[in-house]
Prior knowledge:
The structure holds 2 protein chains of 2 kinds.
Chain A: E1 2-5, H1 11-35, H2 40-52, H3 55-80, H4 88-103, H5 111-140, H6 144-164, H7 199-216, H8 218-228, H9 230-235, H10 240-267, H11 278-288, H12 293-317, H13 323-343, E2 344-347
Helix pairs in contact in A: 1-13, 2-3, 2-12, 3-7, 3-10, 3-11, 3-12, 4-5, 4-6, 4-10, 4-11, 5-10, 7-8, 7-12, 8-10, 11-12, 11-13, 12-13
Chain B: H1 2-5, H2 10-35, H3 43-59, H4 64-86, H5 93-115, H6 142-147, H7 151-169, H8 171-181, H9 183-188, H10 193-219, H11 231-241, H12 246-270, H13 276-295
Helix pairs in contact in B: 2-7, 2-10, 2-11, 2-12, 3-4, 3-5, 3-10, 3-11, 4-5, 4-10, 7-8, 8-10, 11-12, 11-13, 12-13
Amino acid sequence: MRLEPKPAPSLAATLAYPAAAIVATFLIASLLVLAAGASPFSVFALVAKGAAGSQFAIMETLTRATPLIFTGLAVAVAFRAKLWNIGAEAQLYAGAVVTVVLGTGALPLPAPILIPLLMVAAMAAGALLLFGPAILKTRFGVDEVVTTLLLNFIVLLFVSMLLEGPLKDPMGLGWPQSPKLIAEARLPRIIQGKRLHYGFAVALVSAFIVWVIMKKSTLGYEMRAVGHNPQGARFAGIPVNATLIKTALLSGGLAALAGFSEVSGLKGNLTLDLSPGFGYTGIVVAMLAMLNPLGVVISAIFVAGIFVGADAMSRSAGVPSYIANVMTATALLTMVTAIMLSRYRVRWR
Amino acid sequence: MEAFDILFTATFWTAAIRIASPLIFATMGELICERAGVLNLGIEGIMVAGAFAGWFAVYSGADLWTGVAVAAATGAAFGLLHATLTVPFGLSQHVVGIGVTLLATSLTYFTYRLALPEVSSPPKIEPFQPWPIPLLSDIPVAGPALFSQTPFTYLAYVTVAAVAWVLYRTPLGLAVRAAGESPAAVEAQGISVTAIRVGAVMAGSALMAVGGAFLTLSAFNSFFFEMVNGRGWVCIALVVFGSWRPGKALLGAILFAAFDAYQIRLQQVAGSVVPYQVFLMMPYILSILALIVVARRATYPKALMIPYQKGER
């Protein structure tokens, strides 16, 4: 079997292959639904209804998409430069911790000053957390995949320690949770009485800014060059290590915004279950978007819809909601395969 | 000096070897994959799948060794998926590996919920029992530690010896190592690099799944979520720490496990002063430190993570 490069695919082909990947994902998921003794059509109809069937459903989906846009952007930025940041989960918690430390009364400032300050502080914490693995990679040649993965476990234990120690809510009846943020530190809701908050707007703006950086700035050009061919980039005079460090700071900062937005916009305090794997799902979101920052918004809403819809479906149809996790993992694998097939022709023999 | 006395007790070393056993299987599995030139980040999920598959087979009435075989077959199946995408298709080993981990983990959880919808506490099975080897188990300290374990742990010793023997003493092992160093040379010998790499990833993944099954069939007696808890990632660090050699990797796994067993006991001695999370962090921090120490002189297999196309030079 050989792979031969194809001529540049047409726009139709560029869209047809990812579409085929999504269809394949639904076909594979159908097998699992059948195994669970349910009808795929009715189950997927329930998923769609749960994700987008009502104003409430759409609000829930967009609320769930918000942290995924941030972690998806974090991964998209890093993977573009072939910096394998698998630690968005840890960076998310770093941002959440800083938000809680500074937002529970330590800084008595009005909201228009406090909220931007919290965002910057959270981003700094996330950036700092990825700075370590990035320095280890560029200075010592330590593989960042393993260090960022292991840091996820270390940071979660650290958060657990904080929630049972210095950050424990004295009014929390012994539960490991932080005190509530002060009102000035809360992102307002977009519509009164609904859960959707301005974190979603911040996510959209972030996606646009990241898109501008990637497409229009020198840094974006350098990141793409380093990701495409590090030796070539070095030969062309691009400071490879400095670019990787800058990428790491941007990526870690974006992931930390997910933690800030969940605490400040949605939950109001920090618990150990703040993120049900948003950092890992961000990898799927970024790959489905083919690492395009604007595509991340669409794929985050799509993935969030699957999760929200599957939750609603499993309550009524009895198919375990883990089907959403299976579908997103399958979509990741079918998508990378589809992208490859759109660029290469497979020759047997 | 209570904290140091622990190191000289037989129960401590017995626990250390027990903790090391699943790591030994999975580390050998990852080592085989990487020696053939494929980084397998599916390890964490494959261990979860193996832990469940082995346990579920036994729970459904199979005997324990059949459970081990079912786990191995499950691992090989995920290995085939990983290898198909990364070897002939040449897709990013990072992305595919994470994808396989996410898929294996979520499929396992889905199947668990489907098979056991109504359980609140995980059902138990009768696990492997310690099986002291006559005479050898009478040696002070080393006897109970090494030779009063379950037969599953003895299989781990045999696995290391077998992996080392195959890699360094057989033509197959030479082909595997060459596929990871200089695939073109393998092809020049008329051997298919694709076949060698796919085979190595399948065999390696089978071992990872067996490592997972050790948790449910020997270390504990039931399956619960999050039970692998980063052990797979630790094994990837252990392969680097062991410079891709089975013997050194075995030593690394035992050292790591001894440290893990030690922190559990230290918790009981010093737990009132230091938060328990600090102890639980230690194994992960140790893994990162070990990577930093060896990284400068690490000699990676030269073709690691580089896809190979026939006829390419």
